[in-house]
Every structure is written in C-alpha cells, then in structure tokens.
Design a protein that fits this description.
The protein is α+β, with helices and mostly antiparallel strands and 225 residues long. The chain has a single domain, classed as tt1808, chain A (Alpha-Beta Complex). 21% of the residues lie in helices and 25% in strands. The strands form 3 sheets. A 6-stranded mixed beta sheet has the order 1-3-5-6-7-8, with helices on both faces. The longest helix is centred in the first third of the chain and has 11 residues. The N and C termini lie far apart (90 Å). About 3% of the residues have low confidence.
Length: 225
C-alpha cells in the first residue's frame, strides 16, 4: 500500500491579506459612553478621604507592583450599561495605559483591564447613595472580591466600618476589617491629616502597621537624623 501525500494549495499574497483582515482585533466603539460628567466631588470630607486612601498605597511596598488605586472613577462592565462610581477602587496586577487621555483608557473598563477591581470603598455621607442596597448588589454582580463601607455618622449601618467578602456571588460581612487576599487591613485612626483632626479610615498591613503618608514618612526620617 503506497503512502498518500497530501498537497496543500499555495495561497497568494492577496489571500493572506484577506485572512489577516478578518483576524485583526475588533476595536469596540465606545464613543457613546460618558466617562466623566464634570460634576464636582460631593463634599470636603469625601474628597479628603479619597486622597487619604490612595496616597499611602503608592508610597508603601506592601503591595506588589503594578497596581491601580483611584478615587471617584467609573467602573464599566459592558458598553450598554452605565458606570458605577465608588469613592475608591484598588486593582492588583493592572496599570493605567500609556495613552490615558484616550476615551478607552479614561475609566475602569473591565473588558480593557481584563478583571474587576479587587476592592472598592464607599464613604457614606448621606442616605441617598445606596451603599448598603443597590451598590452592594451591583458590586457583587461585577465580581468585586471585597467591598468596604465606612459610615462615620451611622446613616446606613450601626457600625462605622464593615468589610464584605464575595462568596458565590453574594457579599458576606467579615468579623474583622482585614483583606487577607490583598495583605491589607483597614483601621479607624484618630489623628491629624492635612491639618484636620478627625477619625480617619486608613490602610494598614496585616500586622496592624499603618501605611504612612509622604508627610509622615518625612517626619519619621527627620526624627532619625
């Protein structure tokens, strides 16, 4: 029995170009998506809390680079759905694109980053934000592993701080304020930040050591001289 040799037809350069045209990645049209509405931050406490939750993360070596921490930035899970905007988000293993002025890089598009954020934080300042209702359900649907609600005035919950973890699509409250998947924890700290004495929500490591701000690190450095 003789071997049969299969001869494949040779494609022309024009046929190769046609195949490449079909296999090029499709660029999604997101020109209709509103990534910012130019509305100001609600109030002074919220604005200061948002900055206080971000700057110490970038000044610390607790988190492995890259990561993205941002305040008041919309999260989009699909082109046809509106965004949801937490006070603060943290996502590990991702970073903002070089061309961050381009519309497809201005907000947290889950399809661009390839994953939802790892944690979102809400700071309650009124009873209209839906932090314990619609936002809680929406963040769970997005698959965000941890959700933090800080309610210093007890407008929506009986405690100042509550940390939720996602289990089978549903958030369950933790008995503490740790985020073990991130190697982080949260604490309520009484002290001065930017000349304001108050109770502040801030990051610490799993051992309870505060993640310091730039001014705090500078003060420690001066003491050691």
């Amino acid at each position: 029995m003789s071997d049969t040799v299969l001869t494949l037809p040779v494609m022309t350069s024009e046929e190769y170009e046609q195949i490449e045209a079909y296999t090029e990645p499709i660029q999604l049209n997101i020109s209709h998506i509103i990534t910012e509405d130019d509305e100001p931050v609600d109030n002074f406490p919220s604005e200061k809390y948002q900055r206080f939750l971000i700057e110490p993360l970038y000044g610390s070596d607790v988190l492995q680079r890259p990561f993205l921490a941002a305040a008041n930035v919309g999260i989009f899970c699909a082109r046809h759905e509106s965004s949801i905007v937490p006070a603060m988000l943290l996502s590990l293993g991702v970073e903002v694109a070089e061309g961050w002025w381009a519309q497809e890089h201005r907000s947290y598009f889950i399809w661009e980053f390839g994953k939802p954020p790892d944690v979102v934080v809400e700071v309650v300042s009124n009873r209209r934000g839906g932090e314990t209702g619609v936002k809680l359900r929406r963040y769970a649907q997005l698959g965000i592993a941890s959700y933090v609600i800080y309610d210093p005035q007890h407008l929506l919950q009986e405690v100042d701080l509550r940390v939720y973890e996602l289990h089978v699509g549903e958030y369950l409250p933790r008995p503490d304020s740790r985020l073990p998947r991130l190697g982080l924890a949260l604490t309520i700290w009484h002290g001065v930040y930017e000349n304001r004495l108050d109770h502040w929500l801030r990051w610490c490591d799993e051992a309870g050591n505060l993640l310091l701000t730039g001014s705090e690190r500078a003060a420690w450095a001066e003491q050691e001289i």
